[in-house]
Q: What sequence folds into this?
């Protein structure tokens, strides 16, 4: 079985940051305008769901807000989105 790390081992994705423990929340990648920098994209609700396995939903949401969404790792900092299905 191919892991996420293996799938993204192509040199085009060099320097892209992946979050440990959140492979199930990984959606894809964003591409910079010049095509040189990629950033990982994660589903916010899935990350909170993963966190809520070990804590309350409220604590998981707070943890996400302060410890995950607040990360800054430079130009290739991961992007976090909410899927439209969760907004309606």
A:
């Amino acid at each position: 079985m191919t892991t996420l790390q293996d799938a993204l081992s192509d040199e085009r994705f060099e320097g892209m940051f992946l979050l440990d423990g959140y492979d199930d929340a990984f959606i894809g990648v964003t591409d910079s305008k010049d095509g040189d920098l990629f950033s990982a994209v994660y589903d916010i609700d899935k990350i909170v769901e993963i966190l809520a396995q070990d804590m309350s939903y409220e604590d998981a949401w707070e943890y996400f807000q302060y410890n995950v969404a607040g990360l800054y790792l430079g130009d290739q900092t991961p992007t976090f989105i909410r899927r439209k299905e969760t907004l309606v």
User: Anything to note?
Assistant: The longest strand covers residues 26-31. The first helix runs from residue 4 to 7. Strands lie at 26-31, 38-43, 79-81. The helical segments are 4-7, 44-51, 57-68.
